[in-house]
Design a protein that fits this description.
single chain, mainly beta, six-stranded antiparallel sheet, five-stranded antiparallel sheet, 14 strands, 13% helix, elongated
Amino acid sequence: MLKKTIIGFMLALFAGPLSAHAEMPGQPCTAAQIGTTKMADDKQNIIACLLTGKTAPENVQEWKDMANTDKNISYSLTCEDWKDSGFSSKDACIKDGRWHLVYINDDNGKTTFGSLKEFKSYTDQGADVKNNDYNGDSHICQTVVWKGNLVHCLDGVRVQGEVWRNDLKYNDNKIGLGAVARRSDGVRVSSNVVPRSNGDLEFAVFPTPGMAFKWFVRF
């Protein structure tokens, strides 16, 4: 008995403090837990975290199953099938820490999936937003702005031009600043500021309508 107690004490000493297990499968172990995890067969969902504490015999490390694993929770792209995916509600599915498709507009700006009202409720709660454009490329929205009944996905300002050239001169008109906004009415707006040789700045805006966009959120 004394030997087991000593071994248990040493394991607990190196393993760290007791911590509650994560609340939802798929979420990482907390910082206070041991970093080792068990993964589901699909290699996507964490199903257990290694922890120590008084709940384990003789303070020895034990695997703690994560909550709701018996419900076989799986990933859902839209969360429309949240019940079949094992979640308690659509909101719980949307907030599982992964990207979910919540809205689609066609090339005329009409809604083909989801609702702008529900989409806005997620952004009001602080969700990250990304946008898939006509090429299928994903763009993380640096800023999300709602104007009227439209959502604007704003890229960060970027430097454009050959900034790596070593023959740059003052007011080099080949270097400028640019930014892009993608809107739920199917319009992509590109804006550029370029310096001219006389020192003036030229500002240009290029709206491109007729684009179908897919919108995703992540908490």
